[in-house]
């Protein structure tokens, strides 16, 4: 049947000034930074813990960092991994790699050696720019990869001079802060700040990337299975930055963006780097999220635009209300990765006087694809409308060539200039995700009204989203199956309050441990801490006698999840 959305009915609900389509300029991501450095040279580009870096200084550091990487033999097309918390060095590294025509591989700096090793080997990264505390894991993971250079970043090097000096004080607080920021550096690793400080600027005539070049490999679970690298081109990132700026109605040279989302996450990266540079915004970078730190920074440099996830908005609004902090400068907040409840939206908007706009995206869409209008027409708890230059279809998940009737459940398909180029080194996965005509299968089941406003009702994929991060059950299960006393395990997500979902381990004990109680939640968490990111560690444990399986032996995670939810319902329900 013909799609009911072929004539884009959602355009009638667009906010004033939002066009049906955007013009995507024929330029790389770095062009926006060059323009900002020329137009807003004295404006603060990055504020990290109170240390301000102007656009002029940022452009100079990017040029020197690119020169340093060029001298190390990094060339166009090379993959360079960045595993660094949010800080000025991360911003410099991102743009320096792109300026060379090389490809950024964003990695979670809290990953262990095994996870880093898999993604470094899979991407073929030849160099890693990593946090000092991540460097030992990178060094351990280096064998079996193409990595030939490790460059360690001391976060203290990005601090204001007085704060750096305070770290040397012989007091417990200074020692604790040093432990948070710094770590041992493996032999042979280069020092980022020393390397950049001594480098010559890159030759201005050095070839620049073109829009069709790959800019970023961003790891994601996609619609199935273990993490794989989504290929995002310069054109993808430029288009999505323009879509975001247009949708939010952001102004050039006046905005202050708070970077509380991690840059290694597609949502945090696009909203805080390409978007900020495109409008010459000041971006305040936070190495980790803390409502306390957000309010302190807001007093120093008031935010106007704040991207985040539901728990962040709840904590900031609650603390600001308790302290009487004025947040009225925040006109727009973008919420993604998990649903926003009407209560959270109301609390935030009462606290700020601004709008909390819920949207939808995925790494394969760079990541923004749909959003609620930035107006009184917004609808909390819905995904909103397709962005400019974005089309949608709602199809039968079992037959994506067949559109479902209006109002029926179906899988969301997306098409637009922000849709990725495929998965790195995985042609079969690419063919499964990208349908003829450029349609991206999201794996998410939605219901759309006659205007094209979508509401998420289910997921076809089994990944868990907790605190805005994706947890891949198979990875957690593979690790837990190596734990003594565990015969079998299924990892599922259940509703978990402000975090979105809680990771639950449903375990079948080995016969000799079934009556001994040797496996408890503390032991499971301790075992997982050896190799998994903190957000992937189970927060609940359920002991089962067996796991439900399909006729071919596959564990039915959805059945496990449904049984857990049914057991939690009141008897009268």
From TrEMBL:
<dbReference type="InterPro" id="IPR050237">
    <property type="entry name" value="ATP-dep_AMP-bd_enzyme"/>
</dbReference>
<dbReference type="InterPro" id="IPR025110">
    <property type="entry name" value="AMP-bd_C"/>
</dbReference>
<dbReference type="InterPro" id="IPR042099">
    <property type="entry name" value="ANL_N_sf"/>
</dbReference>
<dbReference type="InterPro" id="IPR000873">
    <property type="entry name" value="AMP-dep_synth/lig_dom"/>
</dbReference>
<feature type="domain" description="AMP-binding enzyme C-terminal">
    <location>
        <begin position="476"/>
        <end position="554"/>
    </location>
</feature>
<dbReference type="GO" id="GO:0016877">
    <property type="term" value="F:ligase activity, forming carbon-sulfur bonds"/>
</dbReference>
<dbReference type="InterPro" id="IPR045851">
    <property type="entry name" value="AMP-bd_C_sf"/>
</dbReference>
<feature type="domain" description="AMP-dependent synthetase/ligase">
    <location>
        <begin position="33"/>
        <end position="424"/>
    </location>
</feature>
<dbReference type="Pfam" id="PF13193">
    <property type="entry name" value="AMP-binding_C"/>
</dbReference>
<dbReference type="InterPro" id="IPR020845">
    <property type="entry name" value="AMP-binding_CS"/>
</dbReference>
<dbReference type="Pfam" id="PF00501">
    <property type="entry name" value="AMP-binding"/>
</dbReference>
<protein>
    <submittedName>
        <fullName>AMP-binding protein</fullName>
    </submittedName>
</protein>
